[in-house]
Amino acid sequence: MSALPSTPELSANVVSIDEYVAELRTFPAEAFSQVPRICDFQRRLLVRPDTLKPYLLWDAQHYTRNLIDQTPLYELRV
Question: pTM for the full model?
Fold first, then answer.
């Protein structure tokens, strides 16, 4: 994985996947019908690649989608 740029404004927005999920879970249900609001969240926070390691599983025989988090409102996969 490549390193993330280290500009001051970008580093302030780089979080672990756990922090990302915790903030995503604070959104009320109606936010998930407001695409621009969720897109803004996704642009504002970047996930540190090293925190995704537990979810980066590969199976050469099958297509994989690895679940990070799931609620009645969304599924977050890598």
Answer: 0.77
Per-residue pLDDT of the chain in tens (78 residues, 90 and over written 9): 445 545 445 445 999 999 999 999 999 999 999 999 999 999 999 999 999 999 988 888 888 889 999 999 999 998
Distances in whole angstroms, Cα of residue 30 to Cα of each of 26, 37, 58: 12, 10, 34
Could you give phi then psi for residue 68, rounded to 5 degrees? -100, -45
Q: SS3 string of 2-69?
A: CCCCCCHHHHCCEECHHHHHHHHCCCCHHHHHCHHHHHHHHHHCEECHHHHHHHCCCCCCCCCCCEEE
CB atoms within 10 A of CB 67: 10
